[in-house]
């Protein structure tokens, strides 16, 4: 989203230069940084990295794809952790189902889960087969079972069938990630048709309800449900009226369901991302103006890459988080959330 050329914007531009190796010691001194900007851009041998210099910064090239969009056609391509995520066996032997696991945040979670030792089933739309195939290959390369479940979750019948198929093929279910989402920008409520409204609510709320209901009877004590909410749950964007209300609903559903699921020993949490560079944003999710300046308004001055949020999903799925339920965790590049 555009912002005025404030000192912080000017500083971000310089930090971009730092990432490209253009920063001079003089400029670093001008910022009064304890650790020089020349240290940004990549992680050192110990994995330490300055988050300001990592990953692409706006402006981004104007681009538009037909919905639902493919990560493989985005410029720059999102980083889902394909080359960077290293597991440490935190989910060994678990069986995970992730909706929207072909691209974006769901794909990053799928890669991380597989490298942590889980078998992973991904749900996606048939039009996303090229993205899904890549994810299936990555899961298999990690030595885990991959299950591909193409279909449209706006159908209750498909939601029930996808859970049954995942349970049957993986011989159980320990982790459910309700992550698939519909986001379509409309400048005014007057432009949102009943069909649009229904599309958003079916994808983001009804499908979560149907899939969760079908999954719970198969999930043992110790299992985890993780829903993807959004900063829009707290601070609705004016162009995402219908979407934002579903995200508030997801956060609320998470907290209520968590109370019920204590009786079954199942933990329920949500992740609320800020701006992340994903296919949803280039396939109607943002105005072109917002897209080219995507992430500019948060303090870090750039969007997150899906790889940067996957560890939250791993943590919430892991038994290490055994006291964590009914919570919503944010990752917004410094933009405040409750
Ligand atoms: P994405 O487009 O990569 O993932 C969304 C996925 O939803 C798609 O890949 C698609 O497989 C799935 N989907 C949508 N409609 C479907 C349908 N009818 N049937 C089956 N699958 C369907 O984008 P993303 O940003 O990774 O989105 C993942 C989640 O993150 C969404 O819930 C989104 O609302 C949420 N989120 C994203 C951002 C962001 O800035 N990217 C911010 C906050 C929340
Ligand atoms: Mg996709």
How does the SSE layout of this entry go?
Blueprint: H1 7-19, H2 25-31, E1 95-99, H3 104-115, E2 119-124, H4 129-141, E3 146-150, H5 156-170, E4 175-178, H6 194-215, E5 224-228, H7 241-261, E6 267-273, H8 279-285, H9 288-292, H10 310-317, E7 328-331
Helix pairs in contact: 3-4, 3-10, 5-6, 6-7
InterPro entries: NAD(P)-bd_dom_sf (IPR036291), SDR_fam (IPR002347), TAT_signal (IPR006311)
Region (Disordered): 34-59
Biased composition (Low complexity): 39-50
Structure report:
- Belongs to the short-chain dehydrogenases/reductases (SDR) family.
- One of its GO terms (molecular function) is oxidoreductase activity, acting on CH-OH group of donors.
- Residues 39-50 have a biased composition (Low complexity).
- It holds the Pfam family adh_short_C2.
- Keywords: Oxidoreductase.
- There is one protein chain.
- By secondary structure, the protein is α/β, with parallel strands linked by helices.
- The protein has one domain (7-39, 64-331): NAD(P)-binding Rossmann-like Domain (Rossmann fold, 3-Layer(aba) Sandwich), CATH 3.40.50.
- The protein has ten helices and seven strands.
- Strands 3-2-1-4-5-6-7 form a seven-stranded parallel beta sheet, with helices on both faces.
- Helix 6 links the parallel strand 4 (175-178) and strand 5 (224-228).
- The chain is globular.
- The relative contact order is 0.15.
- Residues 68, 102-103, 124, 128, 131, 279 line the site of magnesium ion.
Summarize the structure.
By secondary structure, the protein is of the alpha/beta class.
């Amino acid at each position: 989203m555009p912002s005025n050329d404030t000192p912080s914007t000017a500083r971000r531009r310089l930090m971009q230069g730092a990432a490209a190796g253009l920063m001079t010691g003089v400029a670093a001194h001008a910022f009064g940084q304890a650790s020089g900007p020349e240290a940004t851009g990549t992680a050192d041998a110990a994995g330490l990295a300055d988050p300001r210099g990592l990953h692409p910064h706006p402006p981004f090239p104007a681009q538009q794809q037909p919905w639902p969009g493919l990560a493989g056609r985005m410029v720059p391509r999102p980083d889902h952790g394909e080359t960077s995520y290293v597991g440490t066996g935190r989910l060994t032997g678990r069986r995970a189902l992730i909706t929207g696991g072909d691209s974006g945040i769901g794909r990053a979670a799928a890669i991380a889960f597989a490298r942590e030792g889980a078998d992973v089933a991904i749900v996606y739309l048939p039009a996303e087969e090229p993205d899904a195939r890549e994810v299936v290959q990555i899961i298999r390369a990690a030595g885990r079972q991959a299950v591909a479940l193409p279909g449209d979750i706006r159908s209750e019948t498909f939601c029930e069938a996808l859970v049954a198929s995942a349970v049957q093929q993986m011989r159980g279910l320990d982790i459910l990630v309700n992550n698939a989402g519909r986001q379509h920008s409309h400048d005014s409520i007057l432009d949102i048709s009943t069909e649009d409204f229904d599309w958003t609510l079916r994808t983001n709320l009804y499908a979560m309800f149907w899939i969760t209901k079908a999954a719970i009877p198969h999930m043992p004590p110790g299992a985890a449900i993780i829903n993807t909410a959004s900063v829009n749950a707290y601070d609705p964007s004016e162009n995402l009226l219908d979407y934002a209300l579903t995200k508030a609903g997801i956060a609320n559903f998470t907290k209520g369901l968590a109370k019920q699921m204590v009786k079954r020993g199942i933990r329920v949490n949500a992740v609320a991302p800020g701006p992340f560079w994903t296919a949803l944003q280039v396939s109607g999710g943002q105005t072109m103006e917002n897209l080219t300046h995507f992430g500019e308004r948060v303090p870090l001055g750039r969007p997150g890459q899906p790889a940067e949020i996957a560890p939250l999903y791993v943590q919430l799925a892991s038994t290490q988080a055994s006291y964590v339920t009914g919570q919503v965790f944010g990752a917004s590049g410094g933009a405040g959330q409750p």
